[in-house]
Amino acid sequence: MADSGRWKCERCKWERLCLLEEKLQNALNQIEDLKLMNKKLEEQIRLAATGNKIGRQGTVQEHHEGEQCFVVGDSIIRSVGTGQKNIIVEWFPGIRREQIHRFLDNRDLGTPDTVVIHVGTNDLKRSVNLDYVMGELYSLVNKAKVKFPQSKIVLSGVL
């Protein structure tokens, strides 16, 4: 390309055009592949919502009557477990790791079969040191293991 922004010759222009067309076709192929993968994932989600197992073993677990699940986190989880009698959800807008730590210390939450902790979004907003945040989350999980020794502990965070 010349300094003026115009092509020096027709051959250079043609080669560049062919290269761009090839890149466009590759991008269109990738989009089609992603659309197919998206359809498969939507089908898996639909099947999971009906309680059917799909994919690898353990990808979607069946619902077991009587199992109790406790979920705590920020406002992202406010709709989790809606209509489910065996899921207890405690959500607090803007909650951070240290606040969940205190919440677990000060509340008697019984002995749920599963404890899900959704945390990290608000911690990352306020800290530039990712290693520090990860260390603090590790500490929170250890706290939950001590508080709920018989429970499965699940840490959910920023995707």
Uncertain runs are 52-63
CATH classification, class level of the largest domain: Alpha Beta
Quote the distance from N terminus to C terminus. Answer: 42 Å
Named CATH topology of the largest domain? Rossmann fold
Instruction: Give the fraction of residues assigned to helices.
Output: 40-55%
Average pLDDT across residues? Answer: 77
* CATH homologous superfamily label of the largest domain: SGNH hydrolase
What proportion strand?
Answer: 5-15%
Gross morphology is: elongated
Going across the biggest sheet, name each strand in turn: 2-1-3-4
- The number of distinct helices, counting runs of at least 4 residues, comes to 4
Q: Radius of gyration, Cα only, in angstroms?
A: 25 Å
List the helices and strands and how they pair.
Layout: H1 10-49, E1 69-73, E2 87-91, H2 97-106, E3 114-118, H3 121-126, H4 130-147, E4 152-156
Parallel strand pairs: 1-2, 1-3, 3-4
Helix pairs in contact: 2-4
Features:
2 domains; 159 residues; alpha/beta; 4-stranded parallel sheet
Description of the structure:
47% of the residues lie in helices and 13% in strands. By secondary structure, it is an alpha/beta fold. It has two domains: 1-61, no CATH class; 69-156, Rossmann fold (3-Layer(aba) Sandwich). Helix 2 packs parallel to helix 4 (130-147). The model is unreliable at 52-63 (pLDDT under 50).
Can you describe this structure in just a few lines?
The protein has 159 residues and is α/β, with parallel strands linked by helices. It has four helices and four strands.
